[in-house]
Amino acid sequence: xxxxxxxxxxxxxxxxxxxxxxxxxxxxxxxxxxxxxxxxxxxxxxxxxxxxxxxxxxxxxxxxxxxxxxxxxxxxxxxxxxxxxxxxxxxxxxxxxxxxxxxxxxxxxxxxxxxxxxxxxxxxxxxxxxxxxxxxxxxxxxxxxxxxxxxxxxxxxxxxxxxxxxxxxxxxxxxxxxxxxxxxxxxxxxxxxxxxxxxxxxxxxxxxxxxxxxxxxxxxxxxxxxxxxxxxxxxxxxxxxxxxxxxxxxxxxxxxxxxxxxxxxxxxxxxxxxxxxxxxxxxxxxxxxxxxxxxxxxxxxxxxxxxxxxxxxxxxxxxxxxxxxxxxxxxxxxxxxxxxxxxxxxxxxxxxxxxxxxxxxxxxxxxxxxxxxxxxxxxxxxxxxxxxxxxxxxxxxxxxxxxxxxxxxxxxxxxxxxxxxxxxxxxxxxxxxxxxxxxxxxxxxxxxxxxxxxxxxxxxxxxxxxxxxxxxxxxxxxxxxxxxxxxxxxxxxxxxxx
Length: 498
Fold this sequence. Notes:
By secondary structure, the chain is α+β, with helices and mostly antiparallel strands. It has three domains: 16-99, 2-Layer Sandwich (Phosphorylase Kinase, domain 1); 104-286, Transferase(Phosphotransferase), domain 1 (Orthogonal Bundle), CATH 1.10.510.10; 321-492, 2-Layer Sandwich (Alpha-Beta Plaits), CATH 3.30.70.1230. Helices cover 36% and strands 22% of the residues. The protein has twelve helices and 17 strands. The strands form four sheets. Strands 12-13-11-14-15-17-16 form a seven-stranded mixed β-sheet, sandwiched between helices. The protein has a five-stranded antiparallel β-sheet with strand order 1-2-3-5-4, with helices on one face. Strands 6-8-9 form a three-stranded antiparallel β-sheet. The longest helix has 28 residues, at 389-416.
């Protein structure tokens, strides 16, 4: 390994001032530095200079960093470290200038703070799973996901993750110069240790190992030496989960992500992310993250109880007059002519997307009341007069859901050859007990009727609802080519983010 001076670079790096060593490994060293032209802080990565004069060894060292920077140049993601610059240091060594992340590795974070609460773990691991979905969509497999390669930054209220070190990543299944690089045994899936092709499921295995480690602050796979670690990884026995998770939906998600057989392991990061969001909604609804007197890592239960409502939605039956907003979401799934999925897989995917929608609506303080064909029905109830922020809240939620489902559809179409189409319809009604059953039934039918007339990607509202939203959200008169209408209805117009 190249000797590392206390402060300066081991070789000259033009345009950058060294501010000290951040870390080092078998492949190279990383320094904090200041870019002289801009003054910004960066992380300078310099590969170890070969101790031998072998030109082939020197070429491999250079190729690995060239490979990593080529991949990073393709990637723009909030949770992936950003490439800033690349150049030649003295002696002909290539260097990379990367985004400086002012945090600590997940390894150090767990060593310093112990295991994370379940809610924090879910939040952090959802970010990493989003990175994997992005990488796999771009036909990149990381192959070296581990706590040392994840930076954790705290904004005092939320933890943020940044994925580092793409030196072993493969692009389009071609390891090229990295064919002999096996990764870190304690986080390698069995197929990677056997020298077989690494698939998206390979990354998911490492992700699940890190998930459990976040809760326990201990690696799942341990051993007195490398041989013991390899033996434990290749052993077909299932990996034990923390007792807090047993019997929860999260346990089933982790078990299929940790399956030793790659063909039986979860391999779709997009679907897995939807399931994880469902688990997160269950945790929040159960109120498991409340109170400081409970256990630090609360147990996740499959409760669907709705938590207390910060925006004033009243429990049903508490007051004689209730204002109900009905949201009807229509979700359809279509395979493209290149899709190879079985009917059972398509049905499972459809159910997963519906579950994701249901969880998202629950997070928005609505409750599901039923499914009719492709239509999911939800109620939002409040006890204040119409025309307040409650209706605006539901309208914005519906628009946000459609936008997010559109993004999920684009990813699924690339990865699986399946397109999602979603539309929404809103109708608000005043219920006065007793004698509101027929009014409520009619209001539900109005929402279902409008949903059936709405093109994918749109959210429409009845004329009565539009009158209450007037001045709060932009709408336009909606013309349906499918059926003649005797009563007008309106399309919500999404406002650009500030």
